[in-house]
Structure formats: structure tokens, C-alpha cells
Amino acid sequence: MSTDQLIITCAITGAEISKKDFPALPVTPAEQAQAAKEAVAAGASIIHLHVRDDQGKPSQALADFKNAVDAIKAAVPDVIMQFSTGGAVGESLQNRLAPLSLQPEMASLNMGSMNFGEELFQNLPSDIRAFAAEMQKQSILPELEVYDAGMLEYAAKLVQQNVLQLPVHIQFVLGVPGGMSGELKNLVFLLDRAHDLFAADFHWGVAGIGRYQLPMATHAINSGGHVRVGLEDNIYFRKGEKAKSNAQLVERVVQIANECERKVATVAQTRQLLGL
Ligand code: KMH
Ligand code: ZN
Asked: Which protein residues are within 6 Å of ligand 1, measured from CB?
């Protein structure tokens, strides 16, 4: 589905980076609320959310999600929240599902197992179906996280089986060591396959990891896709220069979009585009 409106998602925290490695990473509810507020002011309409416990460790505990969500909602009442169900590598299925009882508008749905750096990120077919069923039950829109071509094929299979409904919303996550890299030809290939599999009945965005963030965002802006940026995916503003904040990464996407005459979607427009 092509649109002139550009949805910007900001992945403000993630599960892989620690505050020790990157002091500007928002990890407390207050820091996450401030980061979300700045990202939305800069042009983001969706916050992809991982949370931490009071030691700063990745957590899927309901109480930790609730604290973060309450703080974010107080700071930016209208923002679209997209909970991570991936969590940190090794988290149990049960824990990954737990925060969905807070009924966010969106949640991530990881479309397959893979090596994730040196670790195994496990998403068995039965896990994926369980996540999809829970999201459907709670009226949560799944964002299909696709790291590799086989995961796109599996998404099409789940549509055939009526486990997922059209239009699907796909996020290509490119550049994770263990998945497809963020080379342009990979994104072009994935988009081509997505058209074969879903005709025009899908929305897509791209999250380029590390040095792929900027080129992937630029390509999406120029080809009708949507963009995810944020410190979860990339902590550099440019080679050798760390990002100051999530908002700084969003601001650059907005600048490029403006230059390319692509309008940045408001929160209300994003809801309308994605049928939330
Ligand atoms: N932290 C990664 C293992 C998601 O949010 O659903 C998985 C991840 C994807 O970040
Ligand atoms: Zn994530």
C-alpha cells in the first residue's frame, strides 16, 4: 500500500545496549517518557517499546511495562505504543506474552528463529502462532518483524491459514548479524517478494541496524515505505560520532523526508493508515 505519508517509528531503548555502554540510553520510566516526548515532538508517531527493571536489565514483567507506559502516556498521551514481544534473547514465551494484557495498539511479531549475534533468537512456528492468536484476541495490530527472506514466506503462509489478516504490516529489520544485511539489493529483493506474496495488500517499513540505519531510511522515504530509527537499532549519528538522543535520529529522517517532499504522518494519520 503506497502512501505519501511517512510513518516514523522510534525504537527508544531496545534490549541489547546497556546504560553502561551508552549513558544517554533511556531506561527508567522517566527517561523513557522524556525520550518518547522528544521523539514525538520531532516527528515519530509510534514508540517501539522495550522496558527495563529497576536494575536497568531488560524485562518483560507486566509491572515494568505498566510503569513505563504510565510515564509515557502522562508525557505524550496520544502516542501509539508498540510493545516488543521479542524482549531480550532467551526470554520465555510466557514472559514475552505477559505485557500484551495491557492492550497496546500494536506489538512486534517476530517471524522466525535466527542467530542474533552469538545467540539464538527463538521463534518457533507454534510460538509465532500463539503470539498472533493473542494479538488477535486483544485487538492488537501485529507488526511483522522480518529479518530474512524465509520469514516473509512464512508470513504469507500464515495469511493463507488465516492466522494473520491482510493488510499485513511488515517491518524489515536488516543488519542484525545472523539476518540479512542492510544492503539495498536485499531490501529491493524483499519488497519484490512482498509484492508477489501480498500484491498491494501490505504496509512496509524498514529498520536498518547500525550503519544501515541511514541508507535504509533514505531508501524507504523515496520508495513509499516507512521508517524506524532509534537507539535500539543504532547508537551512532554518523561514523565515529555517537547520537545524542533518539530525537536527533528522528529529526534527521524528518529533514530528509522534507527534502524529498514526503509528508510525515501525524499520530492520527498513522492510526488511519494502519487501521488502528
Ligand atoms: N531484542 C531482540 C532479540 C522485538 O522487539 O520484537 C528482539 C527484538 C525484536 O528487539
Ligand atoms: Zn525491539
From this structure: 14-16, 84-86, 88-89, 108, 110, 116, 121, 145
Residue 101 sits in which domain range? 5-274
What is the Cα gyration radius of the chain?
Answer: 17
Name the residues around ion ligand 2, CB cutoff 5 A. 84
Count how many domains the chain has: 1
Per-residue pLDDT of the chain (276 residues; tens, 9 = 90+): 767 899 999 999 999 999 999 999 999 999 999 999 999 999 999 999 999 999 999 999 999 999 999 999 999 999 999 999 999 999 999 999 999 999 999 999 999 999 999 999 999 999 999 999 999 999 999 999 999 999 999 999 999 999 999 999 999 999 999 999 999 999 999 999 999 999 999 999 999 999 999 999 999 999 999 999 999 999 999 999 999 999 999 999 999 999 999 999 999 999 999 999
Cα 143 to ligand 2 centre (Å): 11
3-state secondary structure of 197: helix
One-letter amino acid identity for 231? L
| CA 147 / ligand 1 centre spacing (Å) | 11
Q: Using alpha carbons, select from 85, 136, 134 the residue that is nearest to residue 111.
A: 85
- Report the relative pairing of strands 202-208 and 226-229 from DSSP bridges: parallel
Alpha-carbon distance of 93 to 86, in angstroms, equals 9
The CATH number that applies at residue 200 is 3.20.20.70
Alpha-carbon distance 61 to 100, whole Å? Answer: 11
Q: Which atom of ligand 1 is nearest to the CA of 121?
A: 3
